[in-house]
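$ run holo --ligand "copper (II) ion" --emit tokens
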Amino acid sequence: MARYRLISAGVALLLFVSHHQILAEESIDVPVEPLSEKVAQAILHSCADAEGQVGTLMLRERVSDEGLKLVDVELRISSDLIEAGKHAVHIHETANCTPCGAAKGHFDPGPHSNSSPDGNHPFHMGDLPNIEVDENHQGTLLTTTSRITLSDGPLSIFDADGSAVIVHVNADTYCPHGEDAGCAGGARAACGLIQHAE
Ligand SMILES: [Cu+2]
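-- output --
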């Protein structure tokens, strides 16, 4: 009888160990951590009043099923300093908002780069749709672009001199007739330095 108990205990131990090994093997097939998401942000300040914070930008990079990098854009405006109506929004080529003109032209890397705001619009990599601000000076732009990336690569906005987001005084007409003064939104209303975020 004692011998029978010993065998039973042995079988139980064997089952326990083999079950444990199966669990251990299964856990190897499951990614230990989810793929880290690349995120960037900017706090926008008024170009007329640099002390005035007027909104925030969040950028989140994800990868499509076929490996294309997509960036989800979430721009929120909340300030009396921004008039109601539509306003042009672009990623500009330099991380400098002092003054807003220091952000230079539109982000447009590549062998045929032409960052001229009105002269090469809407072909820049940094071109985005208008944001619409309501009568209470609130506005949200939610869109997705494949023209930029947050991670390294030829379309990365984190190049040597960084990038900024600009909201313009006027709406973007998207320049349907080629170069036309002010067609990309004219003067600058707000600017934010784009920085890596956690
Ligand atoms: Cu612009």
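-- notes --
The longest strand covers residues 53-63.
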